[in-house]
Fold these 3 entries.
Entry 1:
Amino acid sequence: MRLQLALNVRDLEAAIDFYSKMFDAPVHKRKPGYANFSIENPPLKLVLFESADAEDRINHLGVEVFEEGEVGAATERLRSAGLSALVEDETTCCYATQDKVWAEEPDGLRWEWYRVLADSETFGQAAPELPPSFGEPERGCC
């Protein structure tokens, strides 16, 4: 598993240049208005959304898992703890088909636990339809 940090950036090319140098890592996936890095050390999935007008620079946080059943286990843990959880199975988001579950922390920051099932040539949903307790999501789904 590895942590995910999804950021809204004003200038995607400048951000790609900066983070490539900062982590000494190449871009893993690059699409219009979107890029991600799969960094081994530290284990991090860094996602960049070009969004010059975004109020917040942090879009959302996440945990990427790699084994079947890990998203389901996270869903059960969240629900058992009394937390709202929004499940999305086989959803296309951020140029990938994924299984995921969303939760929102008390100050409104969105978290997702997800597993990539396959790459996609389409971005997919702009953002999930979260229950009212989740607030209004920014652009970005993964």
Entry 2:
Amino acid sequence: MAVDASRCAQIFSERFGSAPAVIARAPGRVNLIGEHTDYNHGFVLPMAIERDTMIAGRPLNEPVLRLWAENLGAAGEFSLNAIARQPDAPWADYLLGVALELQRLGRPVSGAEAVILGDVPLGCGLSSSAALEMAALAFFEALGGFRLDDAEAARLGQRVENGFLGLSSGIMDQFISRCGRADHALFLDCRSLERRLVPVVMEQAVFVIANTNCPRGLTGSKYNERVAECGEAVRVLREKTGREGTHLRDFTASDLDAARGGMSEVVYRRARHVITENDRTREACEALSAGDLVRFGILMNESDRSLREDYEVTNRELDAMTSIARSLPGCLGSRMTGAGFGGCTVSLVLRDDADRFCAELSRRYQEATGRAGETYVTRAADGAGAVSG
């Protein structure tokens, strides 16, 4: 399911009294494999999903944004002359941050009246924030008659989060929301930003996202712990190997085994996850390109086990969801996706078994945890852009 542009246009007309001049959209995403590798300068393999954030609006001849957030039932008017955070309307910060970054680039930023509507689930690791940022960027681009390079667009979104919002985040989410293509995943090198599309055309199988409806709990302190543990592993690896690597992506499993005696067991396991996950992600690209879905499913399971045992970022709900999924007919592989400690899983499921899989997964998950989960069957979707203008 994705947001209906005609519905978004209708809401705008009812709210502001005319048809919108521009409708822009951007998708959420799911990371198929390559978790906690981004800040270690490694590799990721996300795909855009069939869930969108959409913005419909028209330009104004004054430097203000008059916004209506349909999902929240919230309205606000915000100046573009002195852009600042909005404590009483934090949802608007994403659009204002994009506008500020465009101003800094010397791009024309038009005032506007606009409606925001979306069906990317909030707070569960499917990148609703990146979808809003990239939809806002596509909206301003359409109004201003310009278009940023895709890499610069992704960097802009990251600057909004890191600088304007003060959030620690990588660049994967903005990249896939901007650069996604239907029936393709995106293999991204988080150091060089080199990327390539990987075909995800599967007649026999589909991806099923399952939302644990357990809010993500990877607090800043736990995130910082993992970053520090990876940094300690790099320090020991440099000392033991004599190499000048700066991040875990610069070292191999053999390097890690040789340096094991110089690091704690916890630090060793953290590094083992990142190094092996980078290898799995590259192998997963090859498996998808070759149509080897069985191998891809095995790699998903191996990734989940590594995240659970070595990186320790799962929780009871995630473990229940993936364990149940793997026990059901038609499931080729299942893993947690996103930061961890809640949020979503992603499973590769034979198409003929998908409906039964979703129903049974939801039923057994609720029995096991007392929580009502949600499932979303999705194909790989296109990235951000204008729908009409």
Entry 3:
Amino acid sequence: MELRRREAADPFFREPPNFDGPGSPVRLGIIREFCHYHRHYIAACRELGVSYRLLDISANDWVPQFLDARCAAFLVWPSVSIRAWREMFDERLRILEQDLRMIVYPGYHETWLYENKRRVHAWLLAKGIPHPRTWVFFERGPAQDFARTVDLPIVVKTNLGAAHSGVWIIRHRADLQRMINRAFTNGLLARGRHRSEGEAGCILLQHFLRNVREWRMVRIGDSYFGHPKGRVGDFHSGSGKVEWTPPEARHLDFLKQVTDEGDFTSMDVDMFETEEGELLVNELQTVFGAGFSVDQARINEKAGRFVWAGQPAHWQFEVGDFARNACANARVNYLVSRLLNENKLK
């Protein structure tokens, strides 16, 4: 029923899978996404006059299909609603990029982190990037021992789960022990997911930070965006609230630091700002729905982007519509520019 609803909401669902823009400098492949988020790429390519082929990476003949398409690169928005879909995208994007030597955008090193809190935590830990204290247990005994003495409240998170669908703030020790027992028996189930999608055999716990402000900070190529997330109760993500206080240079500097470290050119870095002003990475999402806002940065009610101008100018704000179609236009523009520049260098 949900997939039918998403099909009906996709304005391109009944359009031909091929589009040829007059004078298009390249042809891109658009990888079909089960919940139709690929529609953002279709809209972007049509607005920008870029030719594309819509391809099904889940098909049995996906390899010859991708080879025959003769595309310069492939735009991807991974499906994560069902575990099997997530695993399929992980497997096949890796083959596509690393074994077939095709260009995937965002790259596999970016999509591999998408909607996977354990992977993000491990990457942040390895890179020494500040983030909330996090503990991951794969055995019940050590998790139970930890729960007896850890300060409460504490946050329990499922590995997968958008917005705050798989997040619980636990304030009582007995409730924490029950969550641990559930995690190592039937599994934890994010709200809205099918009961077969319960996550068993692991639990992820995170230090509860009081009175933090959360920022959505985004980098697409050389375009930088940022604004605070609104808050409803204890949650920012999924609140449906947006604030437009401009980020300071330190927020943008931290965004650039994190994305430079990972060689990320399509990344939402959700960061917490503590009462003391410390910035911590909460999540990394290479694509995001932007369901509540068509812009990602505003100053004096004007939409735009930030660009790095170097010293002494540092950051500059450019007014314009740079975040169209959930930032898909920015991704397509950056990818086409990159392809043309690489071709010139050959």
